[in-house]
Amino acid sequence: MLETVILQAGHEVTIFYPKFHCELNYIEYYWAALKRYARRHCKYLCPELEKTVLEAMDPVILEQYGP
Fold first, then answer.
1. pLDDT per residue as tens digits for the range 13-50
2. Residue 56, Cβ neighbours under 10 Å: how many?
3. How far is residue 52's CA from residue 38's CA, in Å, rounded to a whole number?
4. SS3 string of 10-45?
5. Which of 4, 6, 33, 56 could form a disulfide with 65 if both were Cys (CB 3.0 to 4.6 A apart)?
6. Taking the chain, what is the end-to-end CA distance rounded to the nearest angstrom?
């Protein structure tokens, strides 16, 4: 059904990822890199954790922190 709606909107579906398949889903690599950055730079206090996570969102480079 999703594919039909997408095609009717004039777009092309080239691939559907398997549901919850972390190795094929880009966002999973991003979150893994973000968590890795946060663990390396956080002092493990709530205010520091929030600051570190927000700080980590922009500079995450998958090639540097990827799996």
1. 777 767 666 666 777 788 888 888 888 888 888 888 88
2. 20
3. 6
4. CCCCCCCCCCCCCCCCHHHHHHHHHHHHHHHHCCCC
5. 33
6. 34
Contact 34, 52 (CB under 8 A): no
CA distances from 3 to 10, 17, 22 (A): 11, 13, 21
Provide Rg for the chain, Cα atoms.
17
Q: At what angle do helices 26-41 and 46-57 cross, to 10 degrees?
A: 130
Looking at residue 58, the DSSP 8-state letter turns out to be T
pLDDT for 66 beyond 70: no
Virtual CA dihedral for 57, 59, 63, 67, nearest 10 degrees?
-30
